[in-house]
Amino acid sequence: MKKYVCGPCGYEYDPAVGDPDSGIPAGTSFEDLPDDWECPICGAGKEEFEPVD
């Protein structure tokens, strides 16, 4: 699964880790995140994230 990085702040969403503070379990792909999920650092929406190779 691809990692995604937040454009405004640089936070990297890693599907292997998830976002436990937001109740997102490890193994959750970026595409499977809820539409209203936001960056846990700056609050940016999913549309602000870009895939990382």
TrEMBL record:
Secretion signal, residue range per the UniProt entry: none
Keywords for the protein's UniProt record, in alphabetical order: Electron transport, Iron, Metal-binding, Transport
Family: Belongs to the rubredoxin family.
Protein's UniProt name: Rubredoxin
Gene3D superfamilies in the record: 2.20.28.10
UniProt entry tagged with the keyword Metal-binding: yes
Rubredoxin-like domain sequence ranges: 1-52
Free-text remark on how the cofactor is bound: Binds 1 Fe(3+) ion per subunit.
Organism: Candidatus Scatomonas pullistercoris
Keyword Electron transport in record: yes
Cofactor: Fe(3+)
InterPro entries: Rubredoxin (IPR024922), Rubredoxin-like_dom (IPR024934), Rubredoxin_dom (IPR024935), Rubredoxin_ET (IPR050526), Rubredoxin_Fe_BS (IPR018527)
Pfam family, one: Rubredoxin
Binding residues for Fe cation: 6, 9, 39, 42
GO molecular function: electron transfer activity; iron ion binding
Origin: domain of life: Bacteria
Any one biological process term the GO annotation gives: alkane catabolic process
